[in-house]
Every structure is written in C-alpha cells, then in structure tokens.
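Archive entry. Fields below.
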Amino acid sequence: MDTATLLKSKGLRVTPQRLAILDILRSTKAHPSVETVYDLVRERFPSISFNTVYKTLQSFEDAGLVWKLSIDNLYRYDGNTLPHAHFYCHRCGMVLDVNGELTQRFSEFLEMARKTPGLKVQSMEVNFYGHCPACRY
Amino acid sequence: MDTATLLKSKGLRVTPQRLAILDILRSTKAHPSVETVYDLVRERFPSISFNTVYKTLQSFEDAGLVWKLSIDNLYRYDGNTLPHAHFYCHRCGMVLDVNGELTQRFSEFLEMARKTPGLKVQSMEVNFYGHCPACRY
DNA sequence: TACTACATAATAATTATTATCATGTTGTAT
DNA sequence: ATACAACATGATAATAATTATTATGTAGTA
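PREDICTED_STRUCTURE:
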C-alpha cells in the first residue's frame, strides 16, 4: 500500500516528514533507533528536529504501523509488524530478524503464554544475543 | 548452597555487602532493578553506595550468579539463572516468571536459533507484556 | 478561504546507567 | 599474628537515552 494511504487509513495526518519517516522504516531491515532514523531523515529534511522524529515514531507505534523493540535497553523501530524474533550483536549493535522455523513457533509461544491464568498478555518479544556473522571470531 | 560458599566458588570476594546483595536476589522473585536492590540492602547497610550495588550486581552477572534482564528498557536482576520467560505488567511495572509448558519449550527455542547459519547465539530473552492479575480490568 | 486541531522545531528536563578516584577491606603469604 | 597487594567500597560526577514544554506552522475540513 502507498505510504500516504497507509497513514490515512490509520487516521494519521499526512505530512512530508511523516512520509519520509515511514518510508525509511518500510524500506529498511536495519531496525534503526530514533537517533538513526533522525540521521537518515535529515538527509532529505535537514531542519527536522529530533523531537519530531521521536513523537512521530511514537504515534506510528500507537497506530500499529511499526513495532517498537526493546533490545539490550535500547529502543529500535521495525517496519515489519508481523511476529518474529530478533538477534542483537553485542559487538557491533546490529539487529537482525531471525527467520525460519522459529517464526512459525513464535505465535504458538504467544498462545501458550496467553493460557497463563490471570495474565492479560498483549505482546511478546524474543531476543537473542551474541555475535553476528561479521563479528564472529 | 551457602551464599558465602557460592561467592567463593565463583572466585569472588566475600564481603558483608556482597552477602547481603546476593541474599536479596536469592530470596526474592520480584526481579528488582539496581535501584530496588539498593533500597533493600540499605535497610541493613544504610551507608552503602549505589555504585557498590551497581558494580556488585555487574560482577555477579559476569560470574553467572544472576541474570541481568532487559525488560521494557529497564535492567532487572533475577537470582534464578535457569532458562525461563518473563512477563512485564505495563501498569504496575511488576515482573513475573512465566512457568509451565513454556519453560520446557524455552530451551528448544534457543536450540532452534543456534542453528541459524553464521550466528553465534549466547543468550535469549523472552518477554511478554500486558497486565498482571492485580492490574487486569 | 478561514479555522481548528494537530504537527513541528527548538530547547530543556528527566531518568537510568556507567565512570572516576580516594579510601577501606579481603585474601594470602609470610 | 602481620603485612601487603589486589580488589571492594563510597562519594561524587559524567554520560547517554528518553521524554517533556511551548511557541509557531501546517493539514484537513467546512
């Protein structure tokens, strides 16, 4: 779906800044932090403020357009909201999607937790930590 | 095992502060933050510094005595280092262990991720988010 | 075209985590 | 028992990341 249409469909206003920010998240698999999105969007909007990026990402998450991940005590944004696990490299800080068999099991895991009496489970995060291919030694 | 013996077995020095801190973690299921451990240990050692608690917890984690969890961008310490999942209540901030069927599956999940080519997976965190029994409405 | 509600930008405050360094204490060897 | 080297502690400060405030600007709607 077209990015402007996507924003409208969630009842969000369409501004050049928002289009740029959402386009960035939709086109990367790098799971950028607010800071990184800020750096990227400044290439096109040099005068955009950090606060705008921060608040915009927040509203995107509230609308369910993006996934706000908490990995190693850092927030990272993922344009892919489908359930999947993540890997964090302790050496270089890179965040990768973990694909394969795990992804199918992911939802089963969530369903299992939802059966815990008393708990109202809204979301789930699965984070692996270690070294990525480039940093492996 | 006796707490002093446990410290020694990991090559760590035994001090009154360390005994108190490790005892706290071994006797609670509350997954306290550094700040909370600091508050608890001050009941017995009113002049202990935050830094001591912070550094001590860090060395405990390095020695594998405790588990440093990253949940909702906050570090929490768990005296139980056996693999298990956690639940975080967005309302009250409480962290609970998730027991049952999930715990057995936890290690399978880790093994699955370890099969991902190229990755060197060291650890794994599974965090559920939602409302706890007391905060459910 | 005008108007209202929301978005933006500049700035500042807050919170959590980590660092520095002088002094004190533990473990070990005498 | 004593002394000493290595590490722990406490006081303080710095850092890093996240969130708040507010005046001005713009999108959406009538």
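CURATOR_NOTE: Chain B has a mean pLDDT of 95.
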